[in-house]
Amino acid sequence: MMKQFTGQRELLRPTKTRFATAFITLSQLHEQKNYLRKMFTSFDWSDSKWAKEQKGKTIANIVLMPSFWNIIVFCLKVSGPLIRVLHLVDGEKKAPMGYIYEAMNRAKDIIVKSFNGNEEKNKEMFNIIDKRWEIQLHRPLHEIGYFLNPEFFYDKSEIEHDAKIMSDLYKCILRLTRDPAKQEKVVAEVGLYTNAQGLFGNELAVRKRKTRAPS
Hints:
13 helices, mainly alpha, 66% helix
């Protein structure tokens, strides 16, 4: 009966990446909202044996409840941008290190905008996102990947003036080598990079900033 009303569409689409399955299922539900509501108010449904069973009545009430669909929209607004970040981390098309930090910041901005910029209204939700971000993905290397990605660095002057990013840059340098001479050499090369000098200022390098991955 469901396929009859949804044009043979399936609601459940298991994916190779488990984190996307729930999101895709909710998307499918939302896409078929009008058809599903139409099914549960049809004569086909009311004449069926399921409409007389308690489980059937419960499901029909849920699908016809406006708050159910509002919750789905809420979940999609929050999880959609985050799924794109996870897809980047899980993908194989390009090394994600230089893109994760910016992708997560962009995802959070999109989520805030989808709630009309009212972050305070959903403070608990943002606390959960930040907590998971800090535990799993937010590491100095991700910030340095962001710093060393020409696609972002030369377009955003605030990166070089971000105290946290610059602090983590020096932490990484100290971690990677304890040799003072090598540390100073790296710092000198960072100066060439930030000022777009040497090969970083080459016409071809400038042209390829947004099309060639840092790796």
